[in-house]
Amino acid sequence: MNSSVRSLLLAVLVLAATAACVRLGFWQLARMRYKHAIHAAQRALLARPPLELSQGLPGAMPEAGSRVRVRGAWDPAALVLLSGRTHLGAAGVSLVCAARLASGERVLVERGWIAAEDSRTAHPELVADSLADVTGVVQPLAHSPHPIPWAELPSQRAGTRLWSARVLEADSAAARFGGTLAPWMVRALPVGTPRDGAPIPEDVVVPDESMHLSYAIQWFSFAAIISVGLLALALRKRPTRG
């Protein structure tokens, strides 16, 4: 293979690599615009006034990501500890309770993090807690073709069953809580400073799109480096007249 053919093949490869980098850069810009639209919609939902839930459940599920205010009474019959949750690097669980509305209907509320050294076991049933007044974000319950196992933990309060689960799944939750249960849940938002021993809610953080802009700049930079490198190589090999 002579030098002219090698140079031609090298030029084709470099141009293809440059075009691929440019294409990936524009793809990242498209992803940035797509994510911006999603995040803007999430922020708009969070900015809406919360839907009041005290008398009963609404006829249709509130929009996922919107805020609701749940007011009623905590149902002490069953508590769920979502295992494997962390807070500021500490091991723990997230407490889920059912709030009973005036109609007798109930909605599950993920109230927040509780410390647990084994990331599984805690005893929130020992804390006297009756009135529910929580503002949180609506989240759909998971659905699975196979029941997700729940493990019953020893409860230290008569009349309260304590469960451990990895995630909340609609059918499993309905089977254990019974009655009229909303097919969605509410994740509590922080309000003020929680009292000692109370669950610690976590705020909803809507990410930004700056990551995709950084990736786009990197791909465009790679394209420029390759192009400049090809030009430098071509100039270096250019024959000189003597």
Terminal CA distance reads 27 Å
β-sheet strand percentage: 25-35%
Portion of residues within helices? 25-40%
Question: Count of helical segments?
Answer: 3
Q: Encode the helix/strand succession as letters.
A: HEEEEEEEHEH
Quaternary arrangement of the chains shown? Answer: single chain
Overall form: elongated
User: Which secondary-structure class do the elements indicate?
Assistant: alpha/beta
User: Mean pLDDT, nearest integer?
Assistant: 86
The biggest beta sheet is recorded as: 5 strands, mixed, barrel
**Model regions low in confidence, pLDDT < 50 over at least 5 residues:** none
Radius of gyration: 28 Å
Strand order of the largest sheet: 2-3-4-8-5
- How many extended strands? 8
Q: Can you tell me about this structure?
A:
The structure is a single chain. The protein is α/β, with parallel strands linked by helices and 242 residues long. The chain is built from three helices and eight strands, in the order H-E-E-E-E-E-E-E-H-E-H. It is elongated. 22% of the residues are buried.
